[in-house]
Amino acid sequence: MTASHAVPDSVLAYDHQATASTGTDDVSVALVGCGPRGLNVLERLVHRARTHGLRGTVHVIEPGPLGVGVHHRGQPDYLRLHTPADRLTAFTDPHMVDGGGVAGPSLYAWARGRGLTVREPTGDETPVRPDHHLPRAMLGEYLAWAAQTIVAAAPAGLRVLHHRATAVDVVPAVHRGGERVVLNNGGVLGVAHVVLAVGHTGAVPMPAPGGADTTTGHWIADPYPLPGSLDGIPPGATVGLLGAGLTCADVVAAVTVGRGGRYVRDGVGCLRYLPSGREPALVLLSRSGLPARARPKPSARPPTDAAHLTFCAVQRLRSLCTGRALDFRRDVLPLVEREMRHRYAARAIALGKDPGGLGDGFLGELVRGTIPRHRLASYHHYRTWYAHYLGDDLREAELGLDGSPLKYSLEALGDLREELRRTVDEPGLTAESTRYFFGSFAAAVSRTVIGPQPERNAELLALLAAGVARPGPGPAARVGWHAGARSWEITSTELAVPAVVHADHLVAARTAAPAVLSSLNPVIRSLRDKGRLRCRLAGDLVLGADVTRVGRPVGGDGRVQHRLFVLGPLAEGSSYYNHYVAAPGAPSRAVADAQRAVECATRP
């Protein structure tokens, strides 16, 4: 599977001299960063230029190929996407936003059209299916091709200039107006507006628990890029993984299949793991003590409209609050729980099952991550329960949304994402509610419906059975560095019979949310230090950039920066769930956000 990354003729070479808006252009925009979210912005700019006859220049500042972001070609194929192939697109259809945009195939249609295949966990090669979770490198190939297609669709009056450089500063152009974007190669670009789509910006490394020495390789604060970050972990070492979500699944794959291990089917079809002998022993740790639930097989039926948490219901709540912030637990959470109960009962009745399967307080228990107390009687009890929980959930996932009332009910937390976003949008939630929403509630949603594909959890079960992996000593285990033993000491806090596990290495197997305060991106740091960009706070919880509904950042003095826009993961906290590639055939917040910014940054 290969694709050319040659720059097409419509992306012009640039001589790095300072340039400024002519004052007559309709479009004078610098796009800082062009991964998937930046590509949404570029597509909207091209479409708007085509439909409104706009002229001007778009400066795209991206050191790598356009569109690719973190999905680079050099990644091993065992690093998979967490979204099915038919739910990913770089193009825009009329269902995503009114009027559509530059048309093109989804990732699935593109891969099928090229006859690409995917390797199953057992090593078999099969043609790409709509529900396949493809290698990230394949998405990178698709995004690079899509970027070329989108740029080629630009009208003659729109110049798209790709600067293979990194932006290091953005400063107001005092005398000319607009902004000056400073590049790391000495170039300076004068533009009217700047759109920051910097993705996962990189952050100051997470400190080791207990203030341990971080220079010895015993603490790995960031597992990416994989597998290189883990090269210092020798075979047979014990490794604690902090986190039970998608990053953890990547790390597990890197030190098992990535080191020569194989999965096979036994005589009854169960997945078994055959170690290579180069694996470490894995200890899985998380605050909740729960594994992430597997994603279910998709439904063959059309999506169901919401019955309780509807757009009208959110508008009603807003009107009752007369412009004030909502209390999420009081105003919204009851509607979420009613929606889940309604879904469970409807699917159970259709399947001839008991419609009352969700007990009172189910959602509260889900958010709290409750584990039955008798399952915490000892480490043995907990480990047994952990494996059974994984297996039971995997069977529900195999039944899919059409066959499992439980999975159909839980999926409401994902299907109602846009309704939930509207509760977060200005005037938003109270400070306490914002802290709860982006803390406990968002974590529960991630654990419940944004988990790994079923194959990953089947592999984890096989690793547990093979003795390669085990859960840590219960929820909220305490981690400390034992200087004398040169190892990590992991102590239970909720098991009735205390237990201690030791590990040679500890990996932060979770991805920190992009943040203004800890960002390593030079532009973000500069804008922050100059008071043009601030983070959003909810009590002691620090969120992403404080931006308006159209994406304009708010400075430290409370003033809106009208020539700047911030889109994507860095805006998490001002809006909800910003770190994804758009899906075809359904309304897309990512594309709509890009369109709002583009409309503000251009004049017809």
TrEMBL record:
It comes from the Bacteria. It holds the Pfam family NAD_binding_9. InterPro entries: FAD/NAD-bd_sf, HpyO/CreE_NAD-binding, L-asp_N-monooxygenase_NS-form. Residues 30-200 form the FAD-dependent urate hydroxylase HpyO/Asp monooxygenase CreE-like FAD/NAD(P)-binding domain. Transmembrane segments: none annotated. PANTHER family: BLR0577 PROTEIN. This is Putative NAD(P)/FAD-binding protein YdhS.
